[in-house]
Write a structure and sequence with these properties.
The complex is a heterodimer of chains A (334) and B (487). Chain A is α/β, with parallel strands linked by helices and 334 residues long. Helices cover 48% and strands 14% of the residues of chain A. Chain A has an 8-stranded mixed beta sheet, sandwiched between helices. Chain B is flat, with a radius of gyration of 27 Å. Classes of the chains: A alpha/beta (334), B alpha/beta (487). At the A-B interface, helix 1, helix 3, helix 4, helix 7 and helix 10 of A face helix 4, helix 5, helix 8 and helix 11 of B.
């Protein structure tokens, strides 16, 4: 995976980085191992599924099991169909000789199903505006804290906007993140109009020369029409001040989400111009297969992976690395 | 035979013993997962209600006495797909489908039912059985306070659920207390305190620097001293593989010995729900499940898996941000939801609770005399609104769920606007809309803050509605009841 955070953002000058980037290399290996350990523990069932596959010959039963394995990873019906069909073609063409090869072909085909668009986060504008959206409890506020922390380390000055004026204590939670990161938080009272907070946030960023404005929004279910309209309104308010903004609209999706994630992403995309997905809570779940379904079916790049509560528990997304985690070697051991 | 479609070049014949030409199109679309790729359905039919799909698959079978093996096979595949799309764990699906097949094979089709209905009934019965036939209540300790401990993953909605449960118990005459044991998430304590203030329920906290085990123990003691009869402990969200935090739960459990441990599960959880539940079951042995976020369009298949794998019942269902949207879980209704058959029972219950019977009788009389006025209309609107948001009511009507609702987005504020317009009419105008001329229209528009077009539109709709009501009064039912509302 690409781990250099300076490469994660478009418009960041790596030379200006103030954080301990040098030590990042070491930490990443720790993270990778940790994540894999977590995954291994909870993917016993997936392993069973595969170990029984891989010793078999290519017959109906085998393909059904592969299907089930993918379904079990929350990849979803349509994307599963597409992947297994291509696998079958590869097998029929004689491209799969043994279990190891099977795994690598499966990974490669799965990786190709991810949307190929740029996975970097664009912060070239001054100020750049990032709008965060997502269903309740998917980790929007936490993700904002983490992104802000990385930006700060890379020498950018973030400014947080407490646009979740609905949930009890959401403003406090963001303020706490602001304190930890050491950046300013623009806030209004609980229950006030989120569009107005967004407006003030951008005005404040301009006045104080902040580089990146990150707007938190209240969690909303994609089925709540009025709340989705409110989100559209926030986007409009932002656009009125900066026509090109928001430069990024990131949708947080919980990695444990099932097929509903696909509907979530579709409806959010219809409401606001979602430029990328942040897959959160990837620690401990065997899956995140829904990310594959979303990226494939809705043509949206996955940009970041959240892996825990701590500030640095956010990783840039990489399709090859992701599929490696989704279907790793441990699957080959019975 | 080969499939006359683009895309898949694989001959279906080698695995398609079940397929016969007349039903090939339907069958291809809905059968074994891979086969669907040959004619990828649009999203709209993907979320068509299962009963619709079965209807299509089994149509023409009416009049036959029994379901044949091929029929059952076809329908079973459809069930499999529906369950997988509802995020029911694939192993549970496998077992379930084979059980349904067994029961459906050779089952007598009742006179009153089509084969499709019969099949749906079998599936629905089996689903309900799997989820537990009746709703189960909390157990209360004879020596108060009854201690309830909430556990679950991050973001599943524990803290909000604590508040909702407190509100629910309050309505049953209990005096609950909340204990803030989530010391990790920033502002979690603050969130619980805010909920406590809203509900007028005391909240015990010791800040975020104290061991949650101590907070729980002290909190329960404090609840006892202050005479509260239920103590609800909020705990930090944790991943089921985080051993340190899981151990913390075990320590809290052995310290305060809760009477109920409830696992909070997000209805949108995917296949992993089974792992989560199993891990929590292994470590803390929860007694029941609270299923949250059921107000989205998630089918909630996770609920089914959790019950099937751990044997623990779903006790509560939570549906919204408002603190009163919380109730006992009804397995039969959930079965309908998973199958996309709507939630007719809930709707009927809500309607019974909300609609004034006397008014309904009066209305019926008026209908017969065709004297339906704006005042009646206003009455009706208000009664419907008492049942909840229009969107949620529509969601409960069979055949109207998910996909179809997307095209039929109802804005509750449209109701406000209609009400405002009617409120701006004089009582004469309400009883005799025909007197409303141009100048009255202008006045009504100005009075209600809308425009003349909106007033005109409402008047037109009302006229149509009166016509429809006349038909209704004369015994002819309108085909689509929603036309009455101008939708």
């Amino acid at each position: 995976m690409s781990y250099n955070w300076a490469e994660v953002f478009r418009g960041v000058d790596a030379a200006a980085a103030v954080g301990p980037l040098a030590t990042r290399e070491e930490r990443k290996r720790g993270w990778f191992r940790q994540l894999r350990e977590g995954l291994t523990k909870s993917r016993k069932a997936l392993q069973d599924q595969f170990s029984s596959i891989l010793l078999d010959k290519f017959d109906e039963d085998l393909w059904e099991r592969v299907e089930e394995a993918l379904i079990y990873a929350d990849v979803g019906v349509d994307t599963t169909i597409s992947i297994v069909q291509r696998l079958e073609q590869a097998a029929n063409a004689g491209g799969i000789a043994d279990a190891t090869q099977f795994l690598s072909v499966l990974r490669a085909i799965s990786a190709e199903h991810f949307c190929a668009a740029d996975t970097r986060i664009d912060v070239t504008a001054q100020p750049a505006v990032i709008l965060m959206a997502g269903v309740n409890g998917t980790g929007k506020t936490t993700t904002i804290g983490k992104i802000a922390w990385h930006l700060k380390e890379l020498g950018k000055e973030p400014l947080l906007v407490a646009g979740d004026t609905f949930r009890a204590a959401a403003v406090e939670q963001l303020t706490e993140w602001g304190r930890r990161v050491g950046c300013e938080v623009v806030r209004h009272d609980h229950g006030s109009d989120p569009g107005a907070v967004a407006y003030d946030g951008i005005a404040a960023a301009r006045a104080r020369g902040a580089d990146v404005v990150i707007i938190d929004t209240a969690g909303r279910l994609h089925t709540q029409v009025n709340l989705m309209r409110e989100l559209e309104k926030i986007e409009r308010v932002v656009k009125k001040q900066i026509p090109e903004a928001p430069h990024e609209t990131l949708l947080t999706i919980d990695a444990t989400t099932g097929q509903n994630g696909l509907i979530q992403a579709r409806l959010f995309k219809e409401a606001v111009n979602v430029s990328g997905v942040v897959l959160t809570k990837m620690d401990g779940t065997a899956k995140g297969g829904i990310a594959l379904a979303i990226s494939h079916e809705l043509d949206v790049p996955i940009k970041l992976i959240g892996t825990g509560e701590t500030l640095d528990a956010l990783q840039p997304f990489d399709a090859a690395g992701f599929t490696e985690l989704l279907f790793d070697e441990s699957l080959l051991q019975g | 035979m080969t499939v006359p479609h683009t895309g898949c070049k694989l001959p279906l014949s080698r695995r398609a013993g079940w397929m016969t030409p007349p039903c090939a199109r339907v069958a291809i679309k809905m059968c074994v997962l891979r086969h669907r790729a040959t004619s990828l359905p649009t999203k709209e039919d993907m979320f068509d209600s299962l009963s619709d799909k079965l209807q299509g698959a089994l149509e023409g079978l009416k009049g036959q006495g029994k379901l044949t093996e091929a029929d059952v096979e076809r329908a079973a595949r459809e069930i499999r797909l529906a369950l997988l799309e509802a995020d029911v764990n694939f192993k549970v699906v496998k077992e379930f489908v084979s059980k349904v097949k067994e029961r459906a094979l050779g089952a007598e089709v009742l006179e009153s039912l089509t084969p499709a209905h019969q099949f749906v009934k079998i599936v629905s019965d089996e689903l309900t059985a799997l989820m537990g036939a009746t709703s189960t209540k909390l157990s209360f300790s004879p020596r108060p306070p009854t201690v309830i401990m909430m556990v679950g993953l991050q973001g599943s909605g524990k803290t909000t659920t604590c508040g909702k449960l407190a509100s629910f118990l309050q309505k049953q005459g209990k005096s609950p207390a909340l204990i803030a044991g989530d010391v990790y998430r920033p502002a979690a304590i603050e969130q619980l305190k805010t909920l406590g203030r809203q509900l007028d329920v005391p909240v015990y906290d010791e800040g975020d620097q104290v061991d949650p085990v101590d907070i729980a123990r002290n909190g329960v003691a404090w609840a006892r001293e202050t005479g509260r009869d239920v103590a609800i402990i909020d705990t930090a969200g944790r991943l089921h593989i985080d051993e340190r935090l899981m151990d913390e739960l075990v320590r809290i459990r052995s310290q305060v010995k809760p009477h109920n441990i409830l696992l909070v599960v997000d209805a949108m959880t995917g296949q992993d729900a089974v792992n989560v539940a199993q891990q929590f079951q292994e470590k803390v042995q929860f007694d029941g499940v609270v299923l949250t976020k059921l107000d989205g369009d998630a089918r909630g298949g996770a609920a089914l898996s959790v019950k099937a794998v751990t044997g623990r019942p779903i006790k509560f269902a939570s549906t919204g941000e408002k603190l009163d949207s919380f109730d006992y879980f009804h397995p039969d209704r959930m079965a309908s939801r998973i199958l996309g058959m709507g939630d007719m029972l809930s709707l009927v219950e809500r309607a019974q609770g909300a609609v004034d019977e006397k008014k309904a009788l009066e209305l019926e009389k008026k209908l017969r005399k065709s004297q339906f006025t704006f005042e009646d209309f206003l009455d009706q609107l208000e009664q419907v609104r008492k049942m909840g948001s229009l969107q949620s009511i529509l969601g409960m009507i069979p055949g109207l769920s998910a996909g179809k609702l997307k095209n039929l987005q109802v804005d509750d504020r449209a109701f406000d606007r209609i009400q405002a317009i009617i409120h701006s009419m004089t009582s004469e105008e309400r009883r005799h809309p025909e007197v409303i001329n141009g100048s009255r229209r202008r006045r009504i528009a100005a009075g209600s803050g809308s425009d003349i077009q909106a007033v005109n539109q409402l008047l037109n709709q009302f006229k149509q509605m009166q016509k429809m009501m006349k038909q209704l009064g004369s015994g002819k039912m309108p085909k689509n009841p929603f036309q009455m509302m101008g939708m």
